[in-house]
Write a structure and sequence with these properties.
The structure is a homotetramer. Helix content of chain A is 49%, strand content 10%. Chain A has a single domain, classed as Alpha-Beta Barrel (TIM Barrel), CATH 3.20.20.150. The relative contact order of chain A is 0.16. By secondary structure, chain A is α/β, with parallel strands linked by helices. The two termini of chain A are 24 Å apart. Chains A and D meet through helix 6, helix 7, helix 8, helix 9 and helix 11 of A and helix 6, helix 7, helix 8, helix 9 and helix 11 of D. Chains A, B, C, D: InterPro entries: L-rhamnose_isomerase, Xyl_isomerase-like_sf, Xyl_isomerase-like_TIM-brl. Chains A, B, C, D: One of its GO terms (molecular function) is metal ion binding. Chains A, B, C, D: This is Sugar isomerase.
Chain lengths: 427, 427, 427, 427
C-alpha cells in the first residue's frame, strides 16, 4: 500500500485556509521578535528521523503482547510502512534495520524499493541480546563481554556480518546495544567484563569501513538486572576514547537513572565531539519506550536547546547526527504512534529554534535567572505547530498526517493486504 | 511601597494593541473548537493563589543563604509585598501566615492593612519543626508524635494558639506539616508514632471552630531522614478518616517519591472528597521548592486536568480549595519568582479549561489512545498566554507583571525603604 | 523425582559435627543475652513460604527467555518440584496456583499428590493480564477496570472460576493482581477506572466462600505504563475498606517507587489489621524479581522486625499471614534460586526474632538513637545461620539444601525424566 | 580531655574473656575455609579513616539545627575530639581540615597537638559554596565556574591558600567539592560552566606541590538545584583526564542518583587508576549523610569487595587511598555516631577480606551464579565483629568504644570543660 500524492494534496486543500491563517499570524509574531519563520521552516524540512524496523509492529512486555492487525510480515512490508509515514510527514526518510530480524536477501531489490519511497538506510543494529534459532552458543550470560572467548567471537562475527549487510544497503554506521551485564552481585567481574567488551569492540572497530562510525549505546539497567556492562555515558565515552575517532556515544532517553539531567549529558558529549545521536522515546518510571513527548515534553525541548547550541558551535547541521525513534507501541496503532513521535520531535526542535539564544547568553552573563527562564519558556509556550505543518506542506507532506491516515483508512487497507493476524518480526 | 493603579493602566496601554491582536486571534481559534474564551477568562479571574508569608525573603539550603536586599522585616512589610504581587496580577489575593514567624500583634490593624490591599488571610500554619528561643521543650525528636507526652502537649498547645491567631484574622483553616519522623532504622516505633500523632491531632481537631478545616500534609522524606510519620497520601487520608469531616489531605507537589503519579493521587483524593488543596512548586530531584512550572509543566497541566474534572464532578469552584505557593527563592528576586509561579499556575489552569473533555471521554470509552493523547496535547500546545493576560487585565492587573515590576524598579524602591541587609523572618 | 529421606539424613550426618559446634556456640552467645535459641528454632520451624507454580521454570524479559532444562511441563511436575524443595528445607510446604496456567483437571489426584509430599495449597491467583487462546474479549485495555462492562464481566467470571478451583484444592484465599492501568496520560479516567474496578471486586467478593479472603495487590508501575489502577498501598487499602473485612492488602516488595520505606507501610497495614501477607523478592532498579535478600538484606530484616512486632501485637503466629516468593529465575536454576530465597527469608526472620525488643523500646522511649541502632545491628550482624539449619534439621530437612541438591544431581535427574527442552507454563 | 590508656586497658580486661572466646571460635571457622584470621586482623589495623573537622558538631538541615552540648569551639578542641575517637578505636588516625572554618593560626603548635594524639592531617578542603564575612565577591552564582572571571580568580586564590595551609600541616592533597551549578533550566550554559571550571582547576593544579594530589568530587544534585557542574563520575573523570596525573576522582556515597550501581563505578575508576578515595556515609532518599552502614550495609560490603580486588590488582595497600567519613550528626552524639561509622567501615572491609575470591573467580568463569552469590553472602553473613575488635585491641584501642565512651561519661566531661551551648564551626 502506498499513499499517492494527490490524496495528500487533496486533503491539504481542505485544511489550507486555516493553516495559512495560523502560519501567517505566527510568522508575524515571530517577526516582531526578529525571528525568520521561513528560515526555521527550512531547517525543519531538513530534519529526518529514522524509523527502526522493529517499531512497526505491536510491542509487548514480559507478560505478553496484545497484537495488532495488518502488521508487516516481511522487510519489504516494513519498508512500505515507513514509506507511508514518510509520504505523510516527509520527515521519516530513513529506516534503521535490525539484524537478524530483517536480513535483506536481495539487497538491490530492497534498495530499489526504498528509493522508490524516498527512503535511505540509517545505522544498522546488531542483536546479541537474544538467542536465535540454531545459534551455536548462547548469550544467556553475555555476548561481547562473555567469560568464554568463543561466545565473544561469535558475537563479534555477528557484528561484522551486520556491517556487511549495512554496506550492501548504503548504511554508514553500526549501532551496538548490549544487554550484557549481571543479575546478581558477584555474578560478574566488572573489570574483566569491561576489558572483554573492549577487546570485542576493538575487533569490530577494526572491521569498520573507512567512512563508517560505530555507535556505543549505554543503559543504566534492564528489568531483572543488577548491573550492565555499559551503564552510563561515562562508561560509553571511556569505550569510545579507547576505540578511536570512529566511535561515538549514542544516547537513548529511556536509559538513565531516575531524575538524570540528560540535557547536560548531551551538552557534555557535544562539547567533546562525541555525540553520535539519539534514540527518542519517553518514559514515566523506567525505560518505558513511550511515544516521544508524551510525558516530559519540556525536557525534550531542553535537550533540543542543547542540540541546537551544540550544532551551531560545531558548525554542523542536523544531518551530522543519527536521529531515531526507539519506542514500543503496545496500545496504539504503531504507525499513528510513530507519527505522533515524529511530530513531537519536530515541535521540540522548532521551539528550540525560535529561542532567542543571544538574549539568553546575555541574561546568563548577568545571572538574570528570571529572564533566562522567561526566554526559555517564551519559546516553549509559543504554539509552533504551524511551523511544523508548514515544513511538512513544503516538503509535500500532509498538514494533518494522523487525520489523513484515518481518513484513508490506511490500517484497514493494510489488514486487507496482509491479514488480521500477522505478527511483525522483532520484539 | 504600593503600586498605584494608574501606573498599571499606563503600562498596559502600551501593550494593549499587541495583546488585543493575540487575544482576538486565540478567541477565534478557540471559538472554532466550540470554546468560549470569555467564559474561561472569567474562570481564571476567580482563581486566587495564596502567598505564604515565608516566601517573600531569599531562602537557603543547609549550606547557607545568599540573602537578597530590601526584604520585608515585619509582618506589615510582608503584607505590603503580597499587595504588590496582587496589584500586578490580581491573582494573589491572600496570604498564608506562619506562626510564630508572623504573629500579628494588632490583629485589627493587620486586617485593615490587608483589606486596603484587597488581601484576605488564608490557612494559618503552625511550626513544630524548629525550636524557638525560650521554648521549654525541644522538638529535636518530634512534636505531635514525640514519645514524651509533655512535648506533645506543648506542640498541641502551639497549634491551638495558631488557631486563635487565625480566628482573629479571619482564616478558616489550620495547615499542619510535621517534620516528625526518624533519621535511623530503629529510632522510632512506627505504630506508636502514628498513634501519638493521631491523639495529638484529635486534640487539635477538637479545638477547631465550627467552620474551620484542618489540612494534614504528608511528605515522603526530608534530607537526613529515614522515615516521616506521615509519609504519603495514604497515611494522610488514614489520619483524616480517623479525625472526621473537617480534616482533609493537603498535597505538596515536592513531597513525593521519584516518579510518583501525582495526578492520580489528586483524582483519588477528590473522588473521596478529601482534597484540601495544594502547595505548588516544582522539582527535579527531590523537594526542590523551585518555581512552579519550571521543570515539569506538562505534569502540572495533567494535575489541573484532574482538578477541573474533580471540581466539575463535585459542583465546586476553585474557591472550594486552598491553593498556595510553597517555594524557596534562592537565586531569583522572591517577588519576581512568585509572579512567575502564579503565571505558570494560571497557564496550566487555562490549558486544562480549554481541554475538550467531552471528546476525551468519548475517546476513552473507545480506547482510542491516540486521540486521547491528541486532545490533551492540543490543549497543552495551545498558547494560552493571551487568556491569562486578558484575565489579569479585566481584574485591573498588569498585562506584563514582571515587566512592570522591573520598569518601576520596585525592588530598588523596597531597598530604599527597608535597606540592603534586611533578612526576612522565616526559613 | 523425589528426594528420599535417607539421602537427606545421610548427607546431614557428614555435616552434623560442624553444625552442632556452631549451633552450640551461638546458643551460648544468645543465652548470655537472655535469648532462648531453642524457642527461636521452633518458631522458625513453623514458618512456611508458599512457592508459586509459575516460579519453577526459567523466566524471561521482554527480549526473550533463555530457557533452562528439565523444567516441569505439567501441574503434577510442578508439585513434584515443590516437593523437592520442601523435602530439602521443610519450609516450602505449600504451593500457590496460577489459573489458567495450572488448572487442576483431577482435583482429588492433585490433592493426593500434594499430600504425599506434605504440601498444601496456598492462595490461588487469577490472571487477567494476558489473553488466553480462544478468549472471547481482550484484556488489552484492562480487565476489572475496563470501560466495557462485558470485558469486566468476563474478568469477574474468571476470578469466580478461580475461586472454584481453589475450593476444590483447599485454598482459602484468592489473590488478585491487575496490570490494569494506562500507558499514556489521558488514556483513562482515573475515577471511572477506580469505580469500575471496585464494582468488579465487589462481585468477586460476593462470591467468596465464608472462610475465604481476597488479597488485593498493588503495584506502582509496569514497564511501558503511565498509571496503574491500584498504584500503592493507600489505593489497595481504600479498596479493602470499601469491600469489607475479607479483603486485605498484599505487599510485593518490588512494587514500590524508588526509596519507599516499605517497613513503615508494613507497620501501618498491620496496625490497621489489613496486611494479607507478602510476595517476597528483591530488586535494584525496579520490579526486578530477583532472589530474596540478594540486594537489600538489611531492608528485609527491617521488614521482619515490623512483622515480628506486628504479630506479637495482634497475638498471631506466622500462619496468620500469606507468605510467598514471587521472583523470576532467569540465570539461575529455579530450584536452587528458590532455596536461596527461602533461606534468606528465614535468616531475616531469625535475626528479627533475636532482636532485644524490650531494650529497643526503652531506648526509643529515651530517644537513645545510638543504642537503638546498636540493638538492631547486633541482631543483624549475628550469624544466625546455625538457627536456620537447626530448624531444618529438626523438621527433617537438610543442613545444606543446595549442597545436597547438587550432590544428588537433582537437575540431571529431572532432565533425564523430562527432557532438555521442556518449557514450564507461566511467564 | 584525653582518654588515658589505662582506662582503655582496664575496660578491655572485663571484656577480654568473652572476646577471646568469640575470636578463637571465628578464627577456627575461618581457618577451616583456609583464611588466616591473624593476617586479616593486621590488614584491618592498618586501615585509617580520616575524620573531617566539620563532623564533630551537631549538624542541621535547612529548617534548623538542634545543637548538642560540649561541642568543640576551636580547632584545638576538634583535634582533641578526634584524639578521643582514635584512642578508642585506633582507626581514626587523621583529621581532614576545612578552610576557612579551621584555619590553623599556629601550625607548629597544631602539629604538635595532633602528634601527641597520634594524628596526621589528611586532605584539606576548600569552601567556595558559602560566602564568608567580609568576602569581596559572592559565590551565590558559582565559584570556579562563575561567569565573572573575578569571582573565579577569588575562588582559585582561596584554593591556593588552602594548599598553603595544608603544606604547613603536612597534608598531601586538596579536596574540592563545588556546589556550582544552576537552580533552573536556562540559568547556565553547561559548556561554558565546564570550561570555566576547567580553567580554574588548571590554575589550582599548577599550584599543587610536587607530591600533592587534587581530588575532584562529583555530586548529582543538591536540594533546590537543577544541575551541578560536576554531576557524575564521568564528568569528574573528564576533568581529571584534562588536568593530569595528579587529579583523581573522589567518590561520596551519597552523591548519586537513585539506584546507582556505585560498586561498578568504583571498579571502573580503579581500573583506570583514577580513584582518589571515599567519603563514607549512608542514605535512604538522597544525600542524607547518615551513619555509615545504617541503611545499606550490603552495598557497602559490595563496594569493599571491589576496593579489595582493586587494591590487589594495583599492588596497593589501603594507605594508597583517602578514606574519610562525611556524615551529618543531627540526632546522635557526633562522637558516638563517628564511632559507629568507623566500626561499620571496618566490618565491611573485614567481610570483603574473608571473601574467597579465588573460588569466586572460578564460579564467575563457569557462570555459576548461585555459587557466586553464596560465596559473597557467606562472607557477609559471617559475624566478623571479633576480627574488628581484635584489631582494635592489638592497636591499643577499646574492645567496645561506645561502651567505654559512655562508661567514662566523656560527653559530660566535654560539657564540663566547654560548656553546654557551644556550637562547632562548620555546617
Amino acid at each position: 500500500m502506498k499513499i499517492e500524492q494527490y490524496r495528500i494534496d487533496q486533503h491539504n486543500e481542505g485544511l489550507l485556509g486555516k493553516h495559512n491563517n495560523q502560519f501567517i499570524f505566527l510568522k508575524e509574531q515571530l517577526g516582531e521578535q526578529g525571528i525568520d519563520a521561513n528560515a526555521i521552516v527550512k531547517t525543519l524540512q531538513a530534519f529526518q528521523v529514522a524509523i527502526p524496523s522493529w517499531a512497526l509492529g505491536t510491542g509487548g512486555t514480559r507478560f505478553g503482547r496484545f497484537s495488532g492487525a495488518g502488521e508487516p510480515g516481511s522487510l519489504e512490508e516494513k519498508i512500505e510502512d515507513v514509506g507511508i509515514l514518510h509520504a505523510l510527514n516527509r520527515s521519516s526518510g530513513s529506516i534503521s534495520l535490525h539484524i537478524p530480524w530483517d536480513i535483506p536477501k536481495d539487497a538491490d531489490a530492497i534498495i530499489q524499493l526504498a528509493s522508490s519511497l524516498d527512503l535511505k538506510f540509517d545505522a544498522v543494529n546488531s542483536n546479541t541480546f537474544q538467542d536465535q534459532k540454531n545459534q551455536e552458543l548462547s548469550y544467556k550470560y553475555g555476548s561481547l563481554s562473555h567469560v568464554d572467548p568463543k561466545v565473544r567471537k561469535q558475537a563479534v562475527d555477528h557484528n561484522i556480518e551486520v556491517i556487511k549487510y549495512g554496506k550492501e544497503l548504503g548504511s554508514k554506521a553500526l549501532s551496538i546495544w548490549l544487554s550484557d551485564g549481571s543479575c546478581f552481585p558477584g555474578q560478574s567481574n566488572f573489570v574483566k567484563s569491561f576489558q572483554n567488551t573492549l577487546e570485542s569492540l576493538q575487533e569490530i572497530y577494526a572491521a569498520l569501513p573507512e567512512d563508517w562510525k560505530v555507535f556505543v549505546e549505554y543503559k543504566a539497567y534492564e528489568p531483572n538486572f543488577y548491573s550492565t556492562v555499559i551503564q552510563d555515558w561515562g562508561s560509553s565515552l571511556l569505550f569510545c576514547q579507547k576505540l578511536g575517532p570512529k566511535a561515538d556515544v549514542l544516547v537513548d532517553l529511556g536509559h538513565h537513572l531516575p531524575n538524570a539531567n540528560i540535557e547536560q549529558i548531551v551538552a557534555t558529549l557535544m562539547m567533546e565531539g562525541r555525540l553520535a545521536g539519539f534514540h527518542f522515546n519517553d518514559s514515566k518510571y523506567g525505560d518505558d519506550d513511550l511515544t516521544v513527548g508524551s510525558i516530559r515534553p519540556y525536557m525534550l525541548f531542553l535537550i533540543f536547546v542543547e542540540l541546537v547550541e551544540g550544532m551551531k558551535r560545531a558548525g554542523k547541521g542536523s544531518d551530522g547526527f543519527a536521529w531515531m525513534i526507539d519506542a514500543s507501541h503496545n496500545v496504539k496503532d504503531p504507525l499513528e504512534d510513530l507519527l505522533q513521535s515524529v511530530e513531537a520531535i519536530l515541535l521540540s526542535y522548532a521551539q528550540a529554534l525560535i529561542l532567542d539564544s543571544k538574549k539568553l547568553e546575555i541574561a546568563r552573563g548577568e545571572n538574570d535567572v528570571v529572564l533566562a527562564q522567561q526566554l526559555l519558556q517564551n519559546a516553549f509556550r509559543t504554539d509552533v505547530r504551524p511551523l511544523v505543518r508548514e515544513a511538512m506542506l513544503h516538503s509535500g507532506g500532509s498538514l494533518d498526517p494522523i487525520g489523513l491516515f484515518r481518513d484513508l483508512k490506511v490500517r484497514n487497507g493494510l489488514i486487507a493486504e496482509r491479514g488480521l493476524v500477522t505478527v511483525a518480526t522483532g520484539l
